[in-house]
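Researcher: Last one for today. Full complex below.
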Amino acid sequence: MASSSATMVYRPRKRFPFAQVLRYVALTLLAFLFVTPLIWMFSTSFKTTGQAYHFPPEFIPSPLTFDSYTNLWTGSIPFNEFYLNTTVIVIFSEIGTLFSCTLAAYAFARLRWWGRNIWFGVLLATMMLPFQVIMIPVYIIFRSLGWLDSWLPLIIPTFLGNPFYIFLLRQFFLGLPRDLEDAACVDGAGSLRILWQIFIPLSKPVLLTVVMFTFVSAWNDFLGPLLYLTSIDKMTVSVGLSMFIGRQGATNWPNLMAGATLALLPIVVMFLLFQKYFVKGIALTGLKG
Amino acid sequence: MSELKTAAISQPQQTWSVRKPRNLNFRRNLEGYLYILPWLIGFFVLTLGPFIAAFVISLHSWDMLTPMKFIGLNNYQTLLKDPLFWKSLRITLIFALVGLPLQLALALLLAVLVNGKNRINLAYRAIFFLPSVSSGVATAILWRWMLNPEFGLINVGIRAVGVPPPPWLSSQGWALPAVIFMSLWGVGSTMLIYLAGLQSIPDQLYESAAIDGANLWAKFRYITLPMMSSTIFFTFIIGVINTFQIFTQVYVLTNGGPNNATLFYVLYMYQRSFQAFKMGYASALAWVLFLLVLVITLIQFKLAGRWVYYESGEE
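Model: Here's the assembly. Have a good evening.
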């Protein structure tokens, strides 16, 4: 608030900032509406079933109970295993994505080879193709490889590149100055060494953006695990969470909300720590399209 | 997309006038292809191959257990007479033509409100953006609870005002509006795209309008909106394409019900393929999905130049 009154001093032609006041009233109201579902989820997760149905609803449950969380961690549905499984899948997806996309992006940005622009056009075209169009044959491929009910169909494709991230990285690489690599080239460094010792260290922001996007999409992925996984001890958080609805009806809301809270927790933490990189990724891809 | 193409082509071609030994050329090509090899394998095995295979399967009748049977274009003929196909298409289009404009309008409103580089705006920005990052099963489950007719927070609020609350997800008429309502929570990423667009509008335009005595609405209507038209158009097209891929939210929220009132296109495809095991028919649905997305993309290329104001001189 202090800053807005400070700007008033510098603009004497404005008498009373009606528009500014109106703006912050509207913002506060909207922000309240946007945050309420999350607070409601968090608060319900600490209630008993009886409290959840209490009228009028209480935002701060009394007494507070951790039953839902202990249920999830030790109950019939092994939520702790879902958590571990998803973490493993996310880690391998990160490795695969960074490996395959950095290599391809570097070749598209800096190396000179026959057919580069054609293949780049192909890459752009594949960005438009929805996964659902090819979902059935892809499923059949993994089935014939005997990979169903394993994490391979979720992990291996990340090692085979993602057009979206390749494009993002390539655009960033194009903007890096050529001087450094020319110097390295004169010193006799090969292209792999240039990529590793010059491009990677200079590209930390965009690499972090890719890491964040990969994290969110692997953690939230639902269709993939739903198609490929069947046994419960291999399930991920997202599919595991959706099984709660079927098993417990829609009745045990505190349990469901505790599950939702735990599923969102890593995303929210990542967001709060690295918000800048999420924003950058959206702005880059949104505008360049 | 056009910007992408020019970026690809206008990339400076470094010509080496010194004579190149043939084996150096070969080495350079080999190197390039080795670098893109992972993606190239992925492209052939997991994109192009399946893309063609989907069409081939769509010409067959197949349940994944017994051998495939060639039936020509039968699946496509069945599809044209399938009321559920038309229903899923209608639902998807309603979402694209009613829900999506609402989303874009809200995103633009938020962007205009949080435009400005002070700390308070940054905090608000984070609040609006967070829900769009956390989309997925957890969010859908959360909204099932929010929209619960008896104890959900939304109806508690509506009842407090004294209006009879709608039954939301359990009624045919209200289920789709409920899905649209929930989708408004995820407009944060569109807001960010708009925000970047707003920040590229030159300040002089607003200043000269202020001198002419333009009020807030006039500035918005005659400067912001025209200057943002290309961005809005772009987000609309992307939004329509994304609408044709909506799956997780409705699968968790309603599973297409009640009585198929929220049977989005891909959900119907999923039901035909992995629940009814009509792989041939579902592949026909998949190819129709591809054709729809292709048509939307082509429309975008055609109309982008005509409807939309682009700042001249910007390449």
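Residues 2-67 of chain A form one domain. The longest helix of chain A spans residues 253-288.
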